[in-house]
Structures are given as structure tokens and as C-alpha cells.
Amino acid sequence: MSWLYLSFTAAFFESLRDVFSKIITNKGNQPLDEYLVAWSLRAFTLIIYLPWLLLSPHPIPTIGQDFWWALLADATLSTIGGILYMRALRYGDLSLTVPLMGFSPLFLVMASPVLLHEFPSKAQFFCILLVCLGAYYLNLNPREKNYLAPLKSLITNQPSRLMIIVAFLWALTTSFDKIGAKNSSPLFFSASLYFCTALISFPIVVIFSPNWLSKLKANFAKLTLLASLKALDMWFHVMAIASTVAANSVAVKQSSLLMSVGYGYFLFHEKNIKQRLFGCIIILAGVSLLSIL
């Protein structure tokens, strides 16, 4: 059962990455903007990632014909999603925004018939309903008697709206990840993706992040730590899926959503935690069942 501990460890580092991302974009005399943090996360993780790739048995695999278009599409959507993700964490509650990433498997099931020619079963549709129900409770305010208010909140609350967009974008990138990995190797495609996203997002940082170079130098250690958390999350996740059925590992890794709700309460003193915890548990159940069906 070593894969179980590896998956939980990956979830732990993923939730820590989200916590630290929120801290460095909100705390200190000069909080970092989402553009610089999103770019640094990719660029610094790439540097940490390269030795892992170069020490692998086959660092440069045979490249298939679908590799390049999948890489370009994946990098473009990942760049947009990365910036929106950091913006949602910066301005929204951790316990409210991160669990909405549970919509990503839902969107993946919807996109799979088009991109991967994979069709959902009736059981998977039931799991989708669980995710939607969990999102409803996540936004439920017991003081409000308007039962449509949670649905309205998903649209009117900007951080929530941004995170749902990210969930949709990353559902698409999951399909492109699979196509790219099949036309090269998982390690090589991941490294290529980090390189391209860092390259694409660099001009965005220069234009939209004032004094980006001075902020980068002053916060170099913090950004390196953030990238290290991402690299550890990735390493433990890859080790886990190498030890068991990938769907089992993915299901367990969704426990990071629950951890984020806990961090939101204990570290940031966020409100309505009972409703958010209950909603997150429902989302977690739906996502976990969806991953293993």
C-alpha cells in the first residue's frame, strides 16, 4: 500500500503549495502579483525538474506527429489557467476557491468524447451530480433563505468564477497531457510543457508586473520554496501512479481539497467553514468515485 502514502504525501504538498501561494500574494510589505508567481512557479520548477529528466533512462524519446500541436494547445491554456488560478487564490478564500477544482474531472468527462473519444457511463454522470451538489453546499450561507443564492455566488463571486474557468481549462489540458505523453514520454512532455509555459508567460510578467526583476531578486528564496513544493507534489504523484492504477492515486490525491478547507479555517480564519467542509466532502466523494469508475 505504499502508493496510498505516496498519494497522500502528494496531496499534502499540493495543498501546502496553495497555502504558500496565497501567503506570498497577500502578505508582507510588497506582496507578489499573480503574474510573477505563476511564471516563477513554472520557470523554477523546470530548473528543479531538468535533472530528473536528464537522469532518466531515455531523456529524449521518439516524438510523435501529434506532439507539437498538443504541446502548443496545452501550454497556451496552462499559461492562462496558471495566472487565473493565482488570482483566485490571491483574492478569494482558500476554503471556497480550491475545492471548486473538483469541477475539473466533471469538465474532463464532458470534453473526453470530443478530444479522446471516451464516453462517460451512467455511474460517472451520478458522480458529476455529486460534484455539482458539493459546489452548491460550498457556497451555502445558512443566514440566507434564498436557495438559489449559492448558484448565483458561483457566477457573481469573481474568485469562484475564475476557479471554475481554471477547472475547465485544466480539464482540457489533461486531455492534451495524455496526447502529448503518448507521442513522447510523460517526463519529456512535462518538461517541455514547463519550458513553453515559462516562455509564453514571461512577456506577460514584463508587461503587467511592475518592477518584476527587483521583486524576483527580493523574493528568490520564497519562489524557490514554492517551486520545490510543486516539484515534490509532482514527484510523489508520479511515484504513486507508477505503483498502482493511476485512477486510484488520482482519487486519493483529491484529499488536498479537504486539506485546503482546513488550512483556510486554521490559518486564514475563513467563515462558513461547516458548509464549506460539508460541500468539499461531497465534491471529494464525487471526484473520487469519478476517478475510479
Automatic annotation (TrEMBL):
Short name of one Pfam family: EamA
One cellular component term from this protein's GO annotations in UniProt: membrane
Chain ranges passing through the membrane: 37-55, 67-88, 94-116, 123-140, 160-179, 191-214, 234-252, 273-292
InterPro entries, per the entry: EamA_dom (IPR000620), EmrE-like (IPR037185)
Domain of life (superkingdom): Bacteria
Domain EamA: 2-139, 162-291
Name of the protein described by the UniProt record: DMT superfamily permease protein
